Write the structure tokens for this entry.
Amino acid sequence: MATRIQLGNGQPARSPAPRPRLRRGAGRPTGAAGEQLRRRILEAASAEFARSGLGGARVERIAAQAGANVRMLYYYFSSKDDLFLAVLERAYATIREAEKALALDKGEPQEAMRRLVRFTWGYYFSHPEFITLLNSENLHQGRHLERSARVSQLHAPFLEMIGRLLERGARAGVFRHDVDPMQLYISISGLGYFYLSNRYTLSAIFKRNLMTRERCDVRLAHIMDVVLGYLRPQRSSLS
Amino acid sequence: MATRIQLGNGQPARSPAPRPRLRRGAGRPTGAAGEQLRRRILEAASAEFARSGLGGARVERIAAQAGANVRMLYYYFSSKDDLFLAVLERAYATIREAEKALALDKGEPQEAMRRLVRFTWGYYFSHPEFITLLNSENLHQGRHLERSARVSQLHAPFLEMIGRLLERGARAGVFRHDVDPMQLYISISGLGYFYLSNRYTLSAIFKRNLMTRERCDVRLAHIMDVVLGYLRPQRSSLS
Amino acid sequence: MATRIQLGNGQPARSPAPRPRLRRGAGRPTGAAGEQLRRRILEAASAEFARSGLGGARVERIAAQAGANVRMLYYYFSSKDDLFLAVLERAYATIREAEKALALDKGEPQEAMRRLVRFTWGYYFSHPEFITLLNSENLHQGRHLERSARVSQLHAPFLEMIGRLLERGARAGVFRHDVDPMQLYISISGLGYFYLSNRYTLSAIFKRNLMTRERCDVRLAHIMDVVLGYLRPQRSSLS
Amino acid sequence: MATRIQLGNGQPARSPAPRPRLRRGAGRPTGAAGEQLRRRILEAASAEFARSGLGGARVERIAAQAGANVRMLYYYFSSKDDLFLAVLERAYATIREAEKALALDKGEPQEAMRRLVRFTWGYYFSHPEFITLLNSENLHQGRHLERSARVSQLHAPFLEMIGRLLERGARAGVFRHDVDPMQLYISISGLGYFYLSNRYTLSAIFKRNLMTRERCDVRLAHIMDVVLGYLRPQRSSLS
DNA sequence: TATGAATGAGCTTTCATTCAT
DNA sequence: CATGAATGAAAGCTCATTCAT
């Protein structure tokens, strides 16, 4: 414990011969204590990225929020970008997991569809960080997600589930026959996402606060109307 | 040598966040030559903000792109934030101006509605910078738009125009009666905006490129179906 | 001059869409004041790189030594590597310039050769920073120099000059005929360079300080012997 | 939580530079398994120091390369500097050991000298890491070697061996009489070392790749010419 | 003998903005 | 109207080293 003088002749990684970065294998610690810190960092990052976007997020704030050293952030995740991807993957996994509980294969088709619409709106509503995360990723042209194998695997079964619901409804005569599951899901999402994501600009241009409890209920009702109205079997061709 | 406190941590963030000064109305009267440079800066800024967001945009790149000196940027616009607001205002003015040409008060209601839907999709499609701009402003919680008197004035007549169209259609028996103009407009926008804004994440999770010519046409047709399907007069209550 | 709070929503260059670095055109200021600071930085960098190598050099030390802000270093030279290259180029230009004054085309061939040998040793002796610079560049596998067009242009005339001297001597019967100018120059250099560059390790293993005035003179005399001994016309083949 | 002063600015630098502690002799006695790991670390370090220099080398990379934990590196060698010294010592021991096999005391003097020249060139040629190691140590002003008792012991017998060879040759009338063994050895080394150590800068300034098989052979022949040319008994004084 | 987790200092580079001319 | 020079603060990331087990 004596006073010690260190030379520590550091020299940043730029200069020497090009050598592969020592990637920590995406940082997989085994100890339980480590796992806990890793998760805290992930959660803090999620909040920070949501609040400020990828570029605006500060690694130091993330570390502080997680009660960790900045260095540890790089110990578990190798870079800010990798951390962002981890956050994204977790976010997608969470929502898709929650959707499984909807049991769309059960119950009356119209009622199941209402569950889906309500859930989707509700999820965006109570997870604004998910919206900001996606917007960030899109600003960056999907740069991170395109490296992720995990994420796309989550969605095939999800679309199939919606497809089965649409078929059930069509067979029961309550849904029209020509509906594409992906298009429908994008519509259900978009109807809520846009309202919530653009809450500030919409509130500004329409000069009213769109986020009051009442107006949000109105919005959900409207979305419900749009989706189910659209799904009604057609009497005659429209478009 | 004035005392200066810098936070330099950008982004909306912390609640008592000190707002950047938006010294509006400092619009210097400029000669014709100056006016031209001013516009070049505005255009360069538009592109840069669109590409990189507010935080990611670099004043130096904007100046370089405009063939100007960074100092000039500060001469015409007093700060990066003011410049961003100017860009935003111009973007809103442009789209609302274009919408006037739709003449929604004329022609068959359903056809007029189709024009609106088609235009809205087309505008987002061919002005991706508008989308990025709005996303940025929303990430920053509408901080800039909040100060703008100009923008909200643009939208009252616009909603009225849609309202008149809905009434015409309802009276003609081709539209349902319970439609709120703002909700409808938000829906029309959202159906296209979400698809285009989230093109990268959606393409990644659904493992297909959503931006091919064909898929975009499919999307527009779907939106058309949704909007007009929803507007069909109801036989029975749905929700 | 009031207290001012700035948000300055900075966001480092990493995140956004890949855009070309705004290279300042290798930084060419026109003002005289700027040119002066630029030179001071170059000189400070030369000393620092010499002392510590490329990797060990600290930009902050360079800036401080030059009486400048670190930021200015990046204003004039765009990166540490570019600065290193500038230093290298200047170093080569300086030695080659000095060599021109040797007037090898004049005087007796043996005497001219002695001038060259003496100069080369003397230059390395009194410019140890040149040695360290070259060693650094070689440690980095010539990464910087290979981007330089300027440097190689300096050397063609130099080799020609030596070639002419060798011919003169051969014709006069005092030099052997089979000498390659480049090989000879590398030998003249190496005989001095190695002694001076490796002064510490050689002193350590031979347990004597090789850098005393006397020993340095002895070394120069030895080199002279080796070079001129080698150049003596052959009576019979040797190798 | 001891008070700790870190300079962290590496490199030889400032004169009163606090020397890194070189706690020698802490050589832990280790079992056979441990000895093996120790050697693997030493070899990995040798490669890493050679590739990147002392400052550019990364302990983590060394450990990874050795298939060991960073902590183990500190267990066997107490610091990066100590490790570097160990590598240096091993390198010197290796080359001096190899030289013993030259049997310079046997055979015709000129032929023995040719063996020495050929060996020296060949060793540098096939051990580029030795060159980089020495350059690093010299950049650091021989800081490590200074402490080593082992190394200097290796060289006295080596110089004596060369001295005997020179005497043999002089007595036989094939070598001149005034040759200093150390100077000659430094010359033989320098003629090859400089060419190989500065391969990148020389290739750049002379615009040709000096490391082709053919050019290397040419260089060796040239060195041979220089050394034996110089050693030829003089007819008249030269310098 | 071995390992994962942790640390604090320091590195290069970048940024929005302003001064002096 | 226009420009080059200058600045302080901070950002992301990396380093050698040690603690706890």
Remarks:
- DSSP finds ten helices and one strand in chain A.
- Residues 1-18, 23-29 of chain A have pLDDT under 50 and may be disordered.
- The longest strand of chain A covers residues 4-6.
